[in-house]
User: Fold these one by one.
Assistant:
Number 1:
Amino acid sequence: MRLVRQMKAKIIEELLSLWENHRGACLGLSAGALIAIAMLIFGFWQTMFVVFMALAGLWLGNEYDSKADAWLDLKETLARFLPVRYQRFRGTNYTDYGFRKER
């Protein structure tokens, strides 16, 4: 019994050390494993839908926490990535997006 407790304590110590020193890798491994299991259980498209909605929620929560204008930031991001013909809201000056009004 004593040996089992020592092994358990050693494993917990190693896991905590990994978490402290390589937090990003641990989170990436966990997220990848969860996505892989979800794809096996639910299928590719359902899993991609859930991942997309989670990322959208993460983005909106981040915008809310930073007290920024989420709609304005979304328009500016789309203006950087979409071709000009899809940007109805863009002004005549193509280098200035013209979304933010000076007060």
Number 2:
Amino acid sequence: MLNNHSRPKRILIVDDEPTLVFFLKQGLQEAELLCHVDGTSSSEEALTKLTYNRYDLLITDLKMPAISGFTLVEVARSLYPGISVIVMTAFGSHEVQNEAAQLNVDGYLTKPFPTATLRDTATKILLAKDHHQLVSEERLSSSLEKAPKRGLERGGRDI
């Protein structure tokens, strides 16, 4: 389960197979991740969703008609540099893995895979994201506490 005090995470699943989107979405919703899960079987619709909604995690197939998963990842990262990404493919190869690594994806899954594998990978990524955010907030808070307290001076006196 993800951190209670953080806002609910948003996940977008994109695959040109509607049945797979349905089952992956259902599997993540049943995982009690405190997430809102959207799904689409259209890469064009995914672009629209990414444009109008902020997602924490993009889960995308790589080989799709119209817009490839790699292009979708690049667009998502240009809109939201902090978005985490899991790529899925039935056509895994060293070339594909290298390209995914160059895009700095957070997870790489070769189809077919158990829904539990996606759930565990997504949970790990979102927990790490929560932890990173918490550490950043603690550092900022600590820095602000250590900063010298200064009043506005006027004529040598604080006002």
Number 3:
Amino acid sequence: MKRAMIFLLAWLPGIALSAEVRLPGGTAIVLTTTSSINSDTSSVGEAVTATVTTAVVIDGVTVIASGAQATGTVNRKEDSGMIGQSGKLTVEFTSVLAVDGTSVPIVATKTIEAKDEVAGTVVVSTLLCPLALLNEGDAAILPAGTQIRAISIGDVTING
């Protein structure tokens, strides 16, 4: 029994406890937004988060876990306005955390535009009442739970 233990202890240092895995550039990663983002209440540069929907597995090794956090920003927004002008919103995700804590660069962009009501507002104001011009359009809203497809940028080595 002692010989078996000695053999195991001599042999264990040669075993890698984690595998080094290369995540190739162009790998698809599905994200899900964690909170609602509204064009009327958000601001350009505001941080936004999402989580990874499905784990990314390379050669049987999980390199990005399901639930891993992705970070990004609001990079364009237009408030809804008078005369039925709709709100517009663009968010961009730029990184996601791998299982070893490595920040993996990604690209994922989502643009939302609310339904524009300008034409209807102008017609109603012309025919019925000029006060209809005060009709405000809808905000663009990216709801929590929205799935967004991201792509990894460049090869990244991860200790899985």
